[in-house]
Amino acid sequence: MSSPYLVPVAQLLRDVPSTLLVSFEAPFDESHEFAPRGAAETDVFPEATVKVKLRLESFSGGLRAKGHVEAPWHGTCRRCSTPVLGISNVAVDERFVDERGPGDEEAYLIEGDFVDLAPLVHDAIFLDLPLAPLCREDCRGLCPYCGIDRNEATCECQAPVDPRWATLDGLRFTGAEPGESNEV
Ligand SMILES: [Zn+2]
Ligand SMILES: [Zn+2]
């Protein structure tokens, strides 16, 4: 079975300059060739559908790939730890070359008569993934004292008071309520 990520480019490279529009949808990582990330990190499921729309333009010794790639990601809200889903839509402008010369460190390699778009798509998507997503902009997070989800419930927890002021509060309290245990 041939992968849509593998694009034949022999004719493009022969007729310089010429262009080829590449547009397809495919699983993000069909053959599971890319290592999964840590459980806490934002990631893309291997079977998630990626949309690829690129324009390949040949120049002497290589190709320029320009367009957009889009993939759905999943992660964890940094404040309340609930699952978060999102979509990365990334602008791409990269080069494929026959062999890397000076200044080509970032370029991908043409493999025979083909370019493999999979590494390019993965790099573009992973660079765009949010490191610490939020389930919503105004997520109220978890109470640091009892752990309750403040988006769903409220609790009576209060931040611990500075001990110097705590003493003062106690004095005021007894002073304001005479007649209880003080006068027995
Ligand atoms: Zn949240
Ligand atoms: Zn609480």
Write the layout of secondary structure elements.
Elements (H helix, E strand, L loop, with lengths): L5 E3 L1 H5 L4 E9 L21 E11 L2 E15 L6 E15 L10 E2 L4 E3 L1 H11 L34 H14 L8
Parallel strand pairs: 5-6
Antiparallel strand pairs: 1-7, 2-3, 3-4, 4-5
Overview of the structural elements:
By secondary structure, the chain is α+β, with helices and mostly antiparallel strands. The protein folds into two domains: 6-128, no CATH class; 140-176, no CATH class. Helix content is 16%, strand content 32%. It contains three helices and seven strands; from the N terminus they run E-H-E-E-E-E-E-E-H-H. It has helices spanning 10-14, 118-128, 163-176; strands spanning 6-8, 19-27, 49-59, 62-76, 83-97, 108-109, 114-116. The strands form two sheets. The protein has a five-stranded mixed sheet, with helices on one face. Strands 1-7 form a two-stranded antiparallel ribbon. Strand 3 and strand 4 (62-76) form a beta hairpin. The site of one zinc ion (ZN) has 7 residues, from loops. One zinc ion (ZN) is lined by residues 143, 145-146, 148, 155, 157.
